[in-house]
Design goal:
This protein is an alpha/beta fold. It folds into two domains: 6-111 and 240-257, Rossmann fold (3-Layer(aba) Sandwich); 119-236, Rossmann fold (3-Layer(aba) Sandwich), CATH 3.40.50. It contains ten helices and twelve strands. The strands form two sheets. It has a six-stranded parallel beta sheet with strand order 3-2-1-4-5-12. Strands 6-11-10-7-8-9 form a six-stranded parallel beta sheet, with helices on both faces. The longest helix has 14 residues, at 88-101.
């Protein structure tokens, strides 16, 4: 293996940012792909003044053909998919592009959390049908994607409160759907238990609608806050994940296979 390996990382998450930085510190050349301008800003902010010269940030959504083109250009030793567990399309595109280009594909997995005492559904559409059978305010911590489904909830303008990243596209969609500013919380997580409690209280939430974002996504803190206040949890289950490696397993593999002896074993997101 090369002494200075090249990696393409699907990096629009905390894990992806930490892994990119760790690999750069270990001497690898890293191309970090983020889908949005917000993701690029988060990546640049994480690096700050200590940004590594061997880090290149690629911004923009890549379909399969776009991913194949990037792979041909940079010729990575491996592609590491650190995308969110629910980013099914990005995962499929990157895996198929690697198969076509005959580039090694590594999937970074997140721990799944226990789901006892939670109301679980396979997708947001099923969850909305259920929420139409119950009363009370709903705090959606599912982010800004697929918010159109939430308009299927009776009295959604009054009952539904949405927390998501502060993106202009999300705010425009909320406006188009008639979701009022008082029902929108734009903040970057993960959030502490205490901050979740404050938000649930301020919105008088009876239900928490969420996805299992794992440790880095603050899932445990959301569930603990809901439990303390007696807020019931509606969980959207994860898509079937690729085979892959958890953070420490991935670090061990990269250290051994690419001779990165100074690669950190554990990131801040663990």
């Amino acid at each position: 293996m090369s002494c200075n390996p090249v990696f393409l990382i699907i990096a629009g998450t905390l894990y992806g940012r930490e892994l990119s930085e760790a690999l750069c510190r270990a001497g690898a050349r890293v191309y970090a792909s983020v889908a949005t301008e917000y993701g690029q800003e988060a990546m640049e902010s994480a690096s700050g003044q200590d940004r590594h010269q061997n880090l290149t940030i690629l911004s923009g959504v890549l379909d399969r053909e776009g991913m194949e083109e990037v792979i041909r250009e940079i010729k990575p030793d491996a592609l590491i998919n650190a995308a969110h567990p629910y980013a099914a399309e990005a995962c499929r595109n990157s895996k198929e592009a690697c198969a076509t280009a005959r580039v090694r594909y590594l999937r970074l997995l997140r721990d799944s959390q226990p789901t006892e005492d939670l109301v679980c559904f396979q997708n947001l559409e099923e969850a909305v049908r259920f929420l139409n059978t119950v009363a009370g305010n709903i705090f959606s911590a599912c982010g800004g994607k697929e918010i159109g489904y939430l308009t299927g909830i009776a009295d959604y303008r009054e009952r539904v409160f949405i927390r998501a990243l502060p993106r202009q596209g999300f705010l425009r969609e909320c406006q188009a759907l008639g979701i009022r500013p008082k029902n929108i919380i734009c903040m970057q997580g993960p959030f502490s238990k205490e901050l979740n409690i404050a938000m649930f209280r301020s919105t008088k939430a009876n239900w928490l609608l969420t996805r299992d974002s794992g440790g880095a996504g603050g899932f445990a803190e959301k569930i603990a806050a809901a439990a303390e206040l007696g807020v019931k949890v509606v969980l959207i289950g994860r898509p079937v994940q690729d085979e892959g490696l958890y953070y420490e397993e991935l670090i061990k593999t990269l250290r051994e296979d690419y001779h990165l002896g100074n690669l950190l074993k554990k990131g801040k997101g663990q």
